[in-house]
Amino acid sequence: MPVSVKICGLSDRAGLDAAVAAGARYVGFVFFAKSPRAVTVEQAAELAVEVPPGIAKVALVVDADDAVLDEIVARVPLDMLQLHGRETPERVTEIRARHGLPVMKAVGVASEADLPALDAYAAVADQLLVDAKAPKDAPLPGGNGLAFDWRLIAGRRWPVPWMLAGGLTPDNLAEAVARTGARQLDVSSGVESAPGVKDAARIRAFLDAARG
């Protein structure tokens, strides 16, 4: 069965066009200044209006305050907010109520000790992003090209849709799906030729693998 794919960290029209042409179901824009994939509100707004209907436009933020979120939501036509910081379940609830958009909460996984957080956030978020936990000294909370031990979530399910992320490439996609049962995948660095530079051929290869 094919899986749905989110191409995250899009920052230019070429990458966006490649994601759309390849069949991505979600496209993600990163609002985190430290990331090589960061976009401004103006850049994201210009890109978002070019996304065809039926493809979800997602804004990735990291511990953003209300003023930042207000500006993003007011100026960028979005379908979902992705919270990739240390937002508490209470903060997730606040953001959903304030902006009226579905919220996806990213949860980093490195060991069994990280799994209870998935249950806690599944109770308040519309979707989960199950990602590799960033190393303590990593400047980025995600997009580090790292995978986690997929056996940790084998057979686990939550009451909301979930997406697998972390170190995915066209080469390991099939194994990731087989081990975890994921029906949605998120990829960023795995379809780049350099940090922040999306590669059309790699995007196409990833989507082809997802359909296979």
From TrEMBL:
Query: SUPFAM superfamilies given for it?
Result: Ribulose-phoshate binding barrel
**Keyword Isomerase on this protein?**
yes
Top-level class of the enzyme under EC nomenclature: isomerase
Q: Which UniProt keywords apply?
A: Amino-acid biosynthesis, Aromatic amino acid biosynthesis, Isomerase, Tryptophan biosynthesis
Q: Which Enzyme Commission numbers does its entry carry?
A: 5.3.1.24
- Where do the N-(5'phosphoribosyl) anthranilate isomerase (PRAI) domain residues begin and end? 5-208
Q: Please write the reaction equations for the catalytic activity of this protein.
A: N-(5-phospho-beta-D-ribosyl)anthranilate = 1-(2-carboxyphenylamino)-1-deoxy-D-ribulose 5-phosphate
Q: Mind telling me which Gene3D superfamilies this protein's record contains? A: Aldolase class I (3.20.20.70)
Q: Work out whether the entry's keyword set contains Isomerase.
A: yes
One GO molecular function term? Answer: phosphoribosylanthranilate isomerase activity
Extract one GO BP annotation from the record.
L-tryptophan biosynthetic process
- What does the record give as its pathway? Amino-acid biosynthesis; L-tryptophan biosynthesis; L-tryptophan from chorismate: step 3/5
Q: Which NCBIfam families match?
A: PRK01222.1-1
Q: Which family does it belong to?
A: Belongs to the TrpF family.
Name of the molecule in the record: N-(5'-phosphoribosyl)anthranilate isomerase
